[in-house]
Write a structure and sequence with these properties.
By secondary structure, the chain is mainly β. Strand 6 and strand 7 form a beta hairpin.
Length: 438
């Protein structure tokens, strides 16, 4: 019998054996999301319709797509349920597009339609090629003491009201001078919910040493959004300090942060729908002698089951070295507690962003910086000594059993690194150039 024939005969058995010994992980607590239906005009007669496939959807799930014109009865657009894609190109015609058109999808399992999605309505006469959702802001200038317009730098998404669809949190940053900053929350339909005034300690916007409550400066945000406690509604997590206040859409105060000084910093969890503060704890700062911390934020499943929030903070000794610290927090049963904190007193280059992934395949997430990885328990998993400061790493699962890190950098540009958590591989540069070291 030929070797190829033997391999073909043994392949199913080998796969079964490997499957039997594959690690089994607990189910992660995930966001309770809907189908996220969106629609956009691609021409004078056609509309692109797209929707969300969820991570826990069965493999045999298919969809029917329905259209309603001007509030009329819904019409199914597909002859057979759609299973090969999560989009459809509809041709309602130019006449129908003169009216508002609503689309929704219905999952189909075993030939039986399931619960319909929330609809998405394309307004009458919508512009062709508008590949974004318009969010009218409540005011061009949220600061009553300023007439200068405010821009939006970042937008975070989360389901604030529990309907399964993403709502929006946006920052409001001044366009001129050092003025205070704001956060504003909106429902998906544009309804204004609440505004957070980051206070007098947000007026210093210097990227490396900003004010103690400043947000959206340099490569840091100090804000994130996620459903941490699994109640179906996303919380807003913010690094706060003295003077931060929150008012609802009617202008009534719903939260206030006070401290004995302007350097104390906290991690606060806010109700995404109302803006009320749910919990607060102190942000660890082992480098307080060099100033307050500005942070990159991320969500990681460090226990493999429930989400934690990470604050990766730094400050600087004047024009000298940076000082960094990783801190992870859990929000459980209304309590915000420190999971672990790790001052960086060891080698490990930093990038402009961080990534979260389970690099060692143990079911628990790690924190990936450009030159090293922090394990789920708050210890350094490994370091890549050849890598210097640069752009964010890109974790990917390619044709390889481990997650690989592809590392673009600002220096040594001709060297390309490919790494996995089990065996570090660093190709040597060929020839001379920016990446050559003799």
């Amino acid at each position: 019998m030929s070797p190829l024939r033997i391999i073909r005969l043994l392949a199913p058995l080998l796969l079964a054996i490997l499957g039997a010994f594959s690690p089994a992980y607990a189910q992660r607590q995930m966001e309770a999301l809907g189908r996220g239906v969106v629609a956009m005009r691609t021409s004078s007669t056609q509309v692109y319709v797209g929707w969300r496939l969820l991570g826990d959807d069965p493999a045999d799930l298919t969809f029917n797509v329905y259209r309603s014109v001007a509030g009329g009865p819904a019409t199914k657009l597909n002859n057979t349920p759609i299973g090969a894609a999560t989009n459809l190109l509809d041709t309602p015609g130019s006449t129908a597009l003169g009216s508002a058109i609503s689309y929704h999808v219905v999952p189909v399992r075993g030939g039986v339609e399931q619960t319909p999605s929330a609809p998405y309505t394309l307004s009458a006469g919508a512009a062709v090629g508008q590949q974004f959702i318009r969010l009218p802001l409540s005011t061009p200038t949220p600061n009553p003491a300023s007439t200068a317009p405010y821009d939006v730098k970042f937008c975070w998404v989360g389901d604030f009201d529990g309907d399964g669809e993403y709502d929006f949190l946006v920052d409001r940053v001044p366009t001129s001078g050092e003025d205070r900053q704001y956060l504003e929350a909106y429902r998906r339909d544009g309804t204004f919910l609440w505004r957070m005034d980051m206070g007098v300690n947000s007026t210093n916007h210097y990227a490396y040493e900003p004010g103690s409550s400043a947000i959206s400066v340099g490569d840091t945000d100090n804000v994130t959004v996620y459903d941490l406690d699994g109640d179906g509604r996303a919380e807003v997590i913010v690094r706060t300090a003295h003077g931060v206040t929150v008012t609802n859409a009617a202008g009534q105060p719903v939260a206030s942060i006070t401290a004995a000084n302007n350097t104390a910093q906290f991690v606060s969890v806010f109700n995404g729908l109302t803006g009320a503060e749910l919990a607060r704890t102190t942000l660890p700062n082992p480098w307080a002698q060099y100033g307050t911390l500005t942070n990159k934020c991320a969500i990681g499943y460090f226990d493999g089951q429930r989400p934690s929030v990470l604050f990766y903070g730094y400050n600087r000794d004047g024009d000298g070295p940076f000082y960094r610290v990783f801190s992870a927090f859990d929000f459980r049963n209304g309590q915000l507690t420190l999971r672990w904190t790790l001052p960086q007193t060891f080698p490990g280059a930093e990038g402009h962003q961080i990534r979260i992934a389970d690099v060692d395949n143990d079911g628990r997430d790690e924190v990936i910086d450009i030159g090293h990885v922090i394990d789920d328990d708050g210890t350094q998993l490994f370091v890549i000594p050849e890598v210097s400061h640069g752009r964010p790493p890109g974790p990917r699962e390619l044709h390889h059993p481990a997650i690989q890190l592809h590392l673009p950098r600002q220096r040594l540009l001709r060297r390309r690194h490919r790494r996995d958590a089990a065996q570090m591989v660093c190709p040597r540069p060929r020839g001379r150039g920016p990446g050559h070291r003799s």
